[in-house]
From TrEMBL:
The lineage of its organism: unclassified sequences, metagenomes, ecological metagenomes. This is D-isomer specific 2-hydroxyacid dehydrogenase NAD-binding domain-containing protein.
Length: 56
């Protein structure tokens, strides 16, 4: 059967992270990363690492 057209399934978006505490932690970690980079450090969770060599 086509899962999209199944009547006995309820679809909901995944927003389990969305809480006051999680948003506070997100803001805190983002600010810490900006501070780290401004002080000459490397970002902890750099996704596009190939760009890092452009700034060395």
């Amino acid at each position: 059967t086509d899962i999209i057209n199944t009547d006995n399934i309820i679809y909901t978006p995944h927003v389990a992270w969305n809480s006051v505490e999680a948003e506070t932690e997100l803001r805190k970690s983002a600010a810490q990363e900006v501070k780290r980079v401004l002080e000459g450090g490397r970002p902890l969770n750099l996704v596009n690492k190939e760009l890092l060599k452009c700034y060395q």
